[in-house]
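Researcher: Please translate sequence to structure tokens.
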Amino acid sequence: MISEFLIRKFIKNSNDTRSKKVRSDYGYLGGIVGIVVNIFLFLIKLSVGLFVNSIAVIADAVNNLSDVGASMVTIFGFKLSSKPADKEHPFGHGRIEYISGLIVAFLVLMVGFEFIRTSIDRIKNPVPVQFAWVPFILLLVSILFKVWLSKFYKTVGDKINSSALKASSVDSLSDVVSSSTVVISLLISKFTTLPIDGYIGVIVSLVILYAGYNLIKDTLDPLLGVAPDEELVKDIHKMLLAYEHIDGTHDLMVHNYGPGRIIASIHAEIPEDISVVKAHEVVDRAEKEISAELDIHLLIHMDPVTTKDEEILSAKDELMTVLDKFSFINSFHDFRVVGEGDYKNLIFDVVVNHDFVITKESQLKLQQQINMELKKIQPNHNAIVTVDPSYY
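Model: Translation complete:
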């Protein structure tokens, strides 16, 4: 409820999340709210930590201070990623947002490693922790703030599909776990003189390190080239097949240059007996309409296919029967028949899943296996196979 109020209050046209300005405004709002809340929590926890003499509480306080730095990085990342394309970066600067998320992750790791060292030192040289109800209640309040901040980041991150803000949401949730552990340790110290503060500090540090590891993984994947969103893949195929004269699709590739900067290319199968002008009109209209609908830049390559030649259609059916026997083959395309008389070459591409390791030897072996099965049905046909990996 508070999250929606802040969005309505500070973001004009907040529903137009495709707008680069609106998207940047969401990022700035997330970063500023994070800075304000985390500075507030840092001051509370630092005061409590110094008052009760707890290294675990101080560690939790400094973790909040690192979150302030992370929020600043997020704001800086949104500022740079919103820059328009230029000569050196023709696809824009959108991936800077992923880099800012990666920096946040490394800041989290640094805090975790530092407080493992400090906590181990406290285990070796224990110092009594002084329990007091007011600091204890303040820590409970700080946990509620972090729960809200995590939900706020998630709300904003989901609205604009921001990996940096989603990473901040996960980081805040891990802070809730670590702060809860600290509160429990402080409560236990009221009933025992055992030096548990250092051990709890180690636990908090490990939670912080685990959160940092997950953040690195989540932000590194799109930089390395993660598989595209499954729903986006389905939508592109479904929408394209809805156009008249487009009978099939294959070879979809999706390149992510940052949120809102997706370039996709795909092959569309068009009957060979329609005019080139008509085929171009269909493909050109599909490119423009699907690009606008899905907020991507779609490029379509036109592949003419035979739809009426009985000999070719019969050979294609025979091949489908053969390929069904290979579970790792997802589909085939670019099918054509070459040759005269009874002896024909069936030339086509197959798309294999990730269980099939593509090497020169494995491709040759697969072609031999397909030919072995094919000749059981049609001895005069020979398969010439190109193996393509699946890109989604």
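Researcher: Any highlights?
Model: Residues 309-392 form a domain with the Alpha-Beta Plaits fold (CATH 3.30.70.1350).
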